[in-house]
Design brief:
Layout (H helix, E strand, L loop, with lengths): L14 H18 L10 E10 L7 E10 L9 E7 L2 E7 L17 E5 L4
Antiparallel strand pairs: 1-2, 3-4, 4-5
Length: 120
């Protein structure tokens, strides 16, 4: 019998190497994503399991699972103020400009108002 030495990642016709390469691409995109924390660790996990076919312990079923752990995107933060309006309440998003402040063209900056209704 002719024997060919291969890398462990090349068993299963290279499927493990291919899966790790896919995870590396995901990981790279996550590392470069400006919406994700830059200093958080990312991980690629490869787990191998070996299960004997029988009690002779000569042949084994090898299972390989891979997973990737990425950084979650940063949360979005804004500021609102709650105000009474007529018979209800509204939330007004506070932007970077003061209320009543004029924009570059002399017009007043629009307020972003979210009506809040009670669930019935």
């Amino acid at each position: 019998m002719r024997v060919k030495e291969i890398d462990l990642l090349d068993i299963a016709d290279g499927a493990i190497r291919e899966k790790i390469a896919d995870h590396l691409a995901e990981l790279y995109e996550n590392l470069m994503d400006e919406n994700c924390p830059p200093m958080m660790k990312r991980k690629i996990k490869v787990e191998m399991s070996f299960e004997p076919f029988d009690e002779r312990r000569r042949e084994f079923k090898v299972g390989v699972t891979t997973s990737v752990i990425l950084a979650s995107p940063k949360g979005i933060v804004t500021s609102v103020t709650f105000e009474r309006s007529g018979d209800g309440v509204v939330a007004v998003e506070l932007g970077s400009q003061e209320r009543g402040q004029l924009d570059l063209y002399g017009g007043e900056v629009e307020e972003k108002v979210i009506p809040i209704k009670r669930a019935k």
